[in-house]
Amino acid sequence: MLAGRTRRDPIDLRYKTFEPLQQVAHRLELKRNGWGRGVHAGIDVRGDGSVEAWTGRLRRRLIPQEPGESPYSALRRTLEP
């Protein structure tokens, strides 16, 4: 569990409102560069408190969770050789 305030209020801009689900409150990013393909992955905690695992450098792709699996376990499963 992350310490501090995680839940956020909507952000209302002139032409658009960003709901808490659309906001990233905290991000844990893992990078490993190597001779071959580097690894770029991480965990996002959204403004509503939900957690999502992702991979990708320029385009983040959500990692689908299997039934009963946490986002942390999904990330571990994806990164294991």
Describe the structure using short key phrases.
81 residues, 1 helix, two-stranded antiparallel sheet, four-stranded antiparallel β-sheet
The total of beta strands comes to 6
For the sheet with most strands, the description reads:
4 strands, antiparallel
Helix content: 10-25%
Rg, Cα atoms, Å? 15 Å
Strand order in space, largest sheet: 3-4-5-6
Mean pLDDT: 83
| Assembly form of the protein | single chain
Classify the secondary structure makeup into a structural class: mainly beta
Percent range for β-strand residues: 25-35%
Structural topology:
Blueprint: E1 11-12, E2 17-18, E3 24-32, E4 39-46, E5 51-55, E6 61-62, H1 71-79
Antiparallel strand pairs: 1-2, 3-4, 4-5, 5-6
Written overview of the protein:
With 81 residues, the chain is mainly beta. The chain has a domain at 26-79. It has one helix and six strands. A four-stranded antiparallel β-sheet has the order 3-4-5-6, with helices on one face. The relative contact order is 0.18.
Provide a brief overview of the structure.
The protein contains 1 helix and 6 strands, in the order E-E-E-E-E-E-H. It has one helix at 71-79, and strands at 11-12, 17-18, 24-32, 39-46, 51-55, 61-62. The two termini are 27 Å apart.
